[in-house]
TrEMBL record:
Keyword Transferase: yes
EC main group: transferase
Gene3D superfamilies hit by this protein: Nucleoside phosphorylase/phosphoribosyltransferase catalytic domain, Pyrimidine nucleoside phosphorylase-like, C-terminal domain, Transferase, Pyrimidine Nucleoside Phosphorylase, Chain C
Name used for this protein in its record: Pyrimidine-nucleoside phosphorylase
Function of the molecule: Catalyzes phosphorolysis of the pyrimidine nucleosides uridine, thymidine and 2'-deoxyuridine with the formation of the corresponding pyrimidine base and ribose-1-phosphate.
Species name: Pelosinus fermentans B4
Length: 441
């Protein structure tokens, strides 16, 4: 078999066999194919696409390119959750202990962020001592004992995906649904969970800007799950405004604690409860999603979820004191309020602009490997549809550099549109895709 023939076949829009895809991925992972040939193949996929069957073959070839975590020693149906990313998307920090407290093992592999704000692993770094570089046996032990474990992505889990993603990043082949879907699903499958819940973000602050593209991506990943024997479901949620009020790593940990303590942002709480109810349903614990939603809400009210969060932090070496004293998290030296200059209703909050501002403050990365300021970020005071008066606070900036604050102040004001017209609240849950297809909620 020759790599040139595989490139040519895809260039001409033909369907590749499972064997051809396995050969290509195996050879590239083992440095038998140069970057320029893999780049040519990726560009062919970008323009010609792949069938769902081809995408499933690509997914499994990448998943099996390194170590596969075997969770068979953990009793129960293990569920993993993955978000396609957004601004103030703190769902994992709430969901993992919440669903674990309900009795479902949550086996989660997460990554660091690139752009906007940090990823889940960056947020957990804000908790002193918290360890995400777990060995497989530590990961399994924590799942067995505590029903929850989060592990960072490592070089030996789906290494083909790591190599290919780095190449896509510099060859303008990121925006390809088959390549996005296979990248996400290969890591989820390699992490060993029985079932996978996807939170596909849609809107201004998300990778998928339109519902059409988001549904297509969700359907592709759900079909991949079917073809490889891992039940997968996708919830489509809005990212036309930040999900939570906190944008930044330690700030988001503090907000997650507030949610688990029965306080905090109601929009974020609602999305977490909805996602969690889907996970309970997939695990066979609750046949009625609405009942699951209320059961999880009870676990917040009676502090069981908060107790599980403490247990989870302790199990992974973190400082449990942050739960009762969030000021033990990294704190910014400078706090600056952005004041509203007019009265009216919040018409629009540009999530992408706010994410950019948080990144400029140091809460996110402009390039891979850049050090993050865990204490930096923004707290929003209002949501779309809220009334605000002149002189009230629009948002508060947290930073350690005055120059960076001055740089983002005008951008923040520009990102929040105010008018006299009253507008409705953002519809956060846009639909669900399962093996039956897309349905509105």
């Amino acid at each position: 078999m020759r790599v040139l023939d595989v490139i040519t076949k895809k260039r001409d829009g033909l369907v590749l066999t499972d064997l051809e895809i396995k050969y290509l991925i195996h050879a590239y992972t083992n440095d038998e194919i140069p970057d320029y040939q893999m780049a040519a193949w990726l560009m062919a996929v970008f323009f010609k696409g792949m069938t769902v069957e081809e995408t499933a073959s690509l997914t499994m070839a990448m998943a099996t390119s390194g170590n596969m975590i075997d969770l068979s020693a953990v009793s129960g149906i293990k569920v993993d959750k993955h978000s396609t990313g957004g601004v103030a998307d703190t769902t994992t920090l709430v969901l993992a202990p919440l669903v674990a407290a309900a009795g479902v093992p949550v086996a989660k592999m997460s990554g660091r962020g690139l752009g906007f704000t940090g990823g889940t692993i960056d947020k957990l770094d804000a908790i002193a001592g918290f360890k995400t570089a777990l060995k497989p046996d530590e990961f399994i032990h924590n799942l067995q004992r505590h029903n929850v474990a989060i592990i960072g992505q490592s070089a030996d889990i789906a290494p083909a995906d790591g190599k290919i993603y780095a190449l896509r990043d510099v060859t303008a082949t990121i925006e390809s649904i088959p390549l996005i879907a296979s990248s996400i699903m290969s890591k989820k499958i390699a992490a060993g969970a029985d079932k996978i819940l996807l939170d596909v973000k849609v809107g201004n602050g998300a990778f998928m800007k339109s519902m059409e593209d988001a549904v297509m991506l969700a359907e592709t990943m759900v079909h991949i799950g079917q073809l490889v024997g891992r039940e997968t479901r996708a919830v489509l949620s809005s990212m036309d405004e930040p999900l939570g009020q906190a944008i930044g790593n330690s700030l988001e940990v503090e907000e997650a604690i507030a949610i688990l303590d029965g306080r905090g942002e109601q929009a974020l709480r609602h999305v977490c409860l909805f996602l969690g109810a889907q996970m309970l349903n997939m695990a066979g614990l609750e046949s009625d999603v609405k009942v699951g939603y209320e059961n999880l809400n009870t676990l917040i009210k009676n502090k069981a979820a908060l107790h599980k969060f403490k247990e989870f932090i302790n199990a992974q070496g973190g400082n449990v004191d942050v739960v009762d004293n969030p000021k033990a998290l990294p704190q910014a030296k400078i706090e600056t309020k952005v004041i509203c200059s007019e009265e009216g209703y919040i018409q629009k909050i540009d999530a992408a602009k706010l994410g950019y501002c948080a990144m400029r403050l140091g809460a996110g990365r402009e390039y891979k490997g850049q050090e993050i300021d865990l204490s930096a970020g923004i707290i929003l005071e209002k949501r779309v549809g809220d009334h605000i008066e002149k002189g009230q606070t629009l948002c508060t900036i947290y930073a350690n550099n005055e120059a960076k604050i001055k740089e983002v102040q005008s951008l923040l004001v520009d990102a929040i549109k105010i008018d006299t017209k009253q507008v409705p609240k953002t519809n956060l849950i846009l639909g669900v895709v399962d093996h039956y297809g897309f349905k509105n909620t």
